[in-house]
Amino acid sequence: MEISELVASKVLDVPDFPKPGILFKDLMPLFADGPAFAAAVDAIIAEQGADTFDVVAGMEARGFVIAAAVAYATGKGIVPVRKAGKLPRQTVSATYALEYGEATLEVHADAFLAGERVLVVDDVLATGGTAAATLNLVEQAGGRVSGFSVVLELSFLAGRERLEGRPVHALLTV
Ligand SMILES: O=P(O)(O)OC[C@H]1O[C@H](OP(=O)(O)OP(=O)(O)O)[C@H](O)[C@@H]1O
Ligand SMILES: Nc1ncnc2[nH]cnc12
After folding, report:
1. What is the Å distance from ligand 1's center to 131 Cα?
2. Quaternary structure (predicted)?
């Protein structure tokens, strides 16, 4: 089965969550299925190339699931990009709008070596607010974004346009 079909078969649509009018794409069935989760992680690594990055960054919370698996499978480290107030040392931060609200993300100011190649991964690309903020934070903290992968892209929310021509890999675009 194609990876896009596999992902499609493991995503549940939940209407009106977390707010009326939002169609929430729930990826928990994909995460809970061992072979399907492994196939998704392997597909992200294959499309990016394991030798194209030095470290993996993932956004709290669902991005951590993918990022940790990609990091472990490739023998790289993981840098968590966290919601405000969670990191103990000096941070760089960005506030942004997402499909159903607003959030602030932070990363430690010394999280990356100068010029380190950083693969950014998340579960969903919706409006692109989270992704745009994260890519900027990685660069503010001294890293170089080598690629950005998501499991699922919601193209009707135009997240790609917000990323101003940066390449995005999605296992499934709907
Ligand atoms: O493209 P955007 O409109 O920014 O939306 C995408 C983001 O929204 C979700 O995270 P959320 O902030 O809901 O947090 P969670 O992972 O903690 O559930 C998702 O995991 C992405 O990070
Ligand atoms: N519709 C949606 N479903 C799941 N995660 C999301 N993150 C932002 N919008 C989302």
Report:
1. 9
2. Homodimer.
Question: Given ligand 2 and candidates 124, 134, 150, 162, which is best to mutate, with the most ligand atoms within 8 Å of its CB?
Answer: 124
pTM equals 0.97
Name the average pLDDT for the chain.
97
Where in the sequence is the domain holding 64, given as residue range(s)?
51-173
Please report, to the nearest 10 degrees, the dihedral formed by the alpha carbons of residues 125, 128, 130, 134 taken in order: 100
Q: Give domain status of residue 85, yes or no.
A: yes
Task: Give residue 122 CA to ligand 1 midpoint distance, Å.
Answer: 8
Number of domains in the chain: 1
**All residues at 6 or more sequence positions from 142 whose CB lies less than 8 Å from its CB, including other chains:** 110, 111, 112, 113, 114, 115, 116
**Domain assignment of residue 26, yes or no:** no
- The set of protein residues with a Cβ atom below 6 angstroms from ligand 2 is 22-25, 98-99, 124, 126, 154
